[in-house]
Amino acid sequence: AAAIYPSPVLLEHCASVVSRFVKSHNNNLKYVGLDALSCIVNINPKYAVEHQMAVVDCLEDPDESLRKKTMDLLYRMTKSHNVEVIVQKMTEFLRSATDRHTREETVSRVSELAEH
Question: What's the rounded Cα separation, in Å, for the pair 9 and 17?
Fold first, then answer.
């Protein structure tokens, strides 16, 4: 079977461009950026790591759906070198999350990450 392998140069460039969306003041662009960065993480998480702090900044947004999307992406970006920072951000997120399901899911993820 034939396969098309993603170009590392293009992935790096994509992640860089997408991070501009994540840093936007427009929530629609942030959401699209988080979604696109999620796709990049599916291919190879290393291309999204340098944009981790821009993603973390999205946790400060008042839009709960955007914060939930951010939590999903952060969870998937977590590796041994950044687990402490991400777990700290997740626990801080719990203080402001009001949706019961989101809180339960976040607690579950924090405990799962703490086991690793």
Answer: 12
pLDDT digits 0-9 by tens, 51-78: 999 999 998 898 988 988 999 999 999 9
Spatial separation of the C-alpha atoms in residues 116 and 113, rounded to whole Å: 5
Q: Which of 97, 90, 31 is nearest to 64 (CA)?
A: 97
Spatial distance between the Cα atoms of 37 and 87, rounded to a whole number of angstroms: 20
Distance (Å, whole) CA 106 – CA 99: 11
Distance CA 42, CA 58 (A): 20
Q: The pTM is what?
A: 0.84
* Residue that the structure tokens 């008042």 belong to: 62
